[in-house]
Amino acid sequence: MSPPGLIFAIESSCDESAAAVVARGDHSLSNAVASQIAVHAPHGGVVPELAARHHLENLMPVIQEAEREAGVTIAECDAIAVTAGPGLIGCLLLGVETAKTLAVAHGKPLIGVNHLAAHLYSPLMNEPGRLGFGEGDFAHPYLGLLVSGGHSELVICHEPTRWEPLGQTLDDAAGEAYDKVAKLLGLGYPGGPVIDRRAQEGDPTAFPFPRPMLKKASSDFSFSGLKTAVRLQVEALGIPEKTNGSSEALINDLCASFQAAVIDTLLTKTERAMVRHRLSRVAICGGVAANRGLRAEAERRLAGNRIQIPPMSLCTDNAAMIGGVAWHQLQAGERMALDASARPHWPLRG
Ligand code: KG4
Ligand code: ZN
To answer: Nearest bound ligand to CA 289?
Structure first.
């Protein structure tokens, strides 16, 4: 007999095709991901049409891998969960239609999961490699700082399925800013890991880049002006044409100064929100949570609070976090109708 509380989860909202088996909302028995980084790298960003075509090729193999790795078949799971939004419509539709088909074929309930809710839930997953600073257990309520290629959001997480959004990006997301700055410095895609690495070698005070929106009391973010400031500086310095040997050091300084501005902006808004809403627990999640500078600075600036950061495998897009939050939706009786569609725009509501 299979252990109860197993969710089979599928994620395809952007450029990762992923599937996982998750037990009782916090323990993944498998977490399979087919990354498309190599497909999109030559374009410097995700090309939606290419992403959808690759989901078509990758989804079934990744689903079989998740079953194999877990030693559990879909037939033994209690429900099928899928990211229903937000995300790229062509990509979401492939995941949603695949999940519907599996749900009908196996006679299982279908759960439609919000991708942002899943990222915000990911620090609660009981997985090796997660980082925790500060005293006490990590539990609701907490402030969630979600920073990824598509999102920069500050959200109070009251329960797994109850949130209070405080602010979001008005233009570029934090990860998107990393990717665009890397592109203009000729550093390739994705930009986050390489800028993070080069920033360790550079001087964060070399260029006084703006800290966007800090004068405003709102919890919204805006990174497009910062990206423009970096571009103007790059043009003024004549990079990448500069060939006198000093451009590598200059690029390190640009990376360090850009990263310092992003981190300062993110953490200042986070600190303010924690004080304003009297919260002492904070989760940092999404692909940018992998950033070494952000992790170190969060530990320093948010000292005295309880900080939780998921392991790398749960920071970037994955299906384990989808299965985690879906367990709570299943318990609450939520079901996705078989005639419901994907929701490319699906903001979290309070
Ligand atoms: O969560 P994710 O896999 O995809 C979205 O849902 O968007 O995040 C991908 C983003 C990319 O923009 C990538 O550049 C960024 O996360 N990223 C990083 C780091 N590793 C990945 N950004 C900053 N520092 C990193 N170490
Ligand atoms: Zn994501």
So the answer is: 1
